[in-house]
Design a protein that fits this description.
Elements lengths: L2 H8 L7 H23 L3 H12 L3 E2 H8 L3 H13 L3 E6 L2 E9 L1 H10 L5 H4 L3 H25 L1
Antiparallel strand pairs: 1-3, 2-3
Subcellular location: Cytoplasm
InterPro entries: HTH_MarR-typ, MarR/SlyA-like, Transc_reg_Sar_Rot_HTH, WH-like_DNA-bd_sf, WH_DNA-bd_sf
Protein name: HTH marR-type domain-containing protein
């Protein structure tokens, strides 16, 4: 057996990397969501921001950023754009002027009627049990990676 054949068997292929599987699945989700987002006139990040506000309205920018895993310098332009579109408003917290609260407008709440009926559960091709298990596994993976990075810092 020559060295090239040995290297071919021991060198991992791109498809063997979990990070690539997650990355390419994310790209596939983006393509699958594109028609839905185009209809709503939103980017994916704007969409998940609105979903987080449907879940809990009147959040601080910091709390919303933590929930979405976004830094303030990434989230603020998204919020400004959504505010310009009439979907949310920002105001200083009267009890703590350092905090900015984010709330949905009526238009932002009405997006829910359009947006939630357009999920991609069926497109995933998973049973209800598989879907829940995959979602929980990916969330665990994310949390473990965040923890590992924090432990190195």
């Amino acid at each position: 057996m020559n060295t090239i054949e040995t290297a071919d068997r021991t060198t991992p292929k791109l498809a063997d990397f979990l990070c690539f599987a997650v990355y390419s699945a994310n790209l596939a989700f983006g393509k699958a969501y594109k028609p839905i987002l185009d209809e709503l006139g939103l980017t994916y990040t704007q969409y998940i921001t609105i979903i987080a506000l449907w879940e809990e309205d009147n959040q601080t920018v910091g709390g919303l950023g933590e929930k979405l895993f976004l830094e303030s310098n990434t989230l603020t332009p998204i919020l400004k754009k959504l505010e310009a579109m009439g979907y949310l408003y920002r105001q200083r917290d009267p009890s703590d002027e350092r905090q900015v609260l984010v709330s949905l407008t009526k238009s932002g709440r009405r997006l829910r009627e359009k947006g939630l009926g357009m999920d991609l559960v069926d497109a995933c091709g998973l049973t209800t049990q598989e879907f829940g298990k995959v979602q929980k596994t990916i969330a665990t993976l994310r949390n473990n990676l965040i923890k590992a990075v924090q432990e190195r810092e």
